[in-house]
Amino acid sequence: MKEANGGWPAESTAQLEKLSKVELIELVRLYSKLFLAVDAFWYLAVKEIVEEDTATACDLWVWERYSPYEFKRLMPFMNIKGNDLEAFAEASSFSPWFSNLNYRFTREEDNKLIFTMLECPTL
Questions:
Q1: pTM greater than the 0.85 cutoff
Q2: CA dihedral 64, 26, 76, 86 (to 10 degrees)
Q3: Disulfide check for 98: which of 57, 76, 92, 104 has CB 3.0–4.6 Å away?
Q4: Which DSSP symbol is given to 10?
Q5: Alpha-carbon distance 10 to 26, whole Å?
């Protein structure tokens, strides 16, 4: 979004409040895709320095820590109550990583949630 004078002088604030709802939604979608790109660039950089098994181990280490970190902040922000599989499934729909995927959660038995990846842009 540019000012009538071409956007200059540039200000230090993002001015998100000036964006329309449609623009904000598109911005979130764009940053969700960029989130995947950062992960991919990070993985490829590590893979150039060390062997692929170590790069994969590093990637898993990061994601095992990031996911709980994300959901611990996301769930209160989105006012999602509970500490169960249903709460996790609901919160996933707001995650930048999950928003890039075509997936399905299926509830089976007590305390079992099946995650089916229908389409993954990374793979």
A1: no
A2: -70
A3: 92
A4: P
A5: 22
Domain positions in the chain are 18-119
**d(C-alpha 18, C-alpha 21), whole Å:** 10
Listed in sequence order, the DSSP H helices in 6-109 are 21-49, 52-77, 85-92
Cβ contact 118:102 at 8 Å: yes
| 55 Cβ contact partners less than 8 Å away, ≥ 6 residues apart | 43, 46, 47
The total number of residues shown for the chain amounts to: 123
Tell me the two tokens of residue 89: 């499934």
> What residue type is assigned to position 24 of the chain?
L
How many Cβ atoms are within 10 Å of 51's Cβ, its own excluded? 10
Amino acid letter at 8? W
